[in-house]
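Everyone, carefully examine this protein record:
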Amino acid sequence: MNAKEDSTAEPSPTILIVDDVHENLFILRRILEQINCDTIMANGASKALAELVDKIPDLILLDIMMPGMDGYELCRRLKASHKTKDIPVIFLTAKTGSGDIAKGFQLGAVDYVTKPFKAVELLARVQTQLELKIGRDIILEKNRRLKEKNKQLEKINADLEHALMEIKTLRGFLPVCSNCKKIKLIDADSDEPESWVVLDAFFKRHTAAQLTHTICPKCSQKLYPELFEEDDSD
């Protein structure tokens, strides 16, 4: 592994190189030394899967033609796993047929580099994919934090709504003046005249209920006796 440490910089990205040829691993590692990254080398698909148990790289450079499990199959397994499906894969290949390249993209690869490697091209493609991944990671992290904040706000709103309902629910005994029938405001000073209010004011202050005014039959007869007088003309 090659690591360029800088305590003041952001953590270096990690690149997993998978190739069954030792010389290719060496060349790729030396090329990638030109950028600030850490490298993990695996000389086959099985070794790569073992490395991925404990370490999730930011990018995988994956050879296609390997004995046993080839790069296509390894890529398929990576994209089928929730743990590794979001790791960008760049295929390393000497197969430049359109069908071979299309198959790689269909399996989830983001790019490919042909052998023999051209350092400038390889570094450009690697840095492009690393920058894209950093951007995706930032967006995902912001979305995660936003979801957490939304959950917190939903809980706060639910707690506030519950508390409001508790406040707006009348319980126990209500002090009512036996003479004028006014009600004392909750937690108000009984000796203060303004603490005693009519029913309308009390409900408006202490509940969420809304009052609508009408006239009961008894008051109707008292206020409008002429409407209830019997017709004696007969």
In short: The beta strands are 14-18, 38-42, 59-63, 89-93, 111-114, 183-184, 196-197. Confidence is low (pLDDT under 50) at residues 1-7. The longest strand covers residues 14-18.
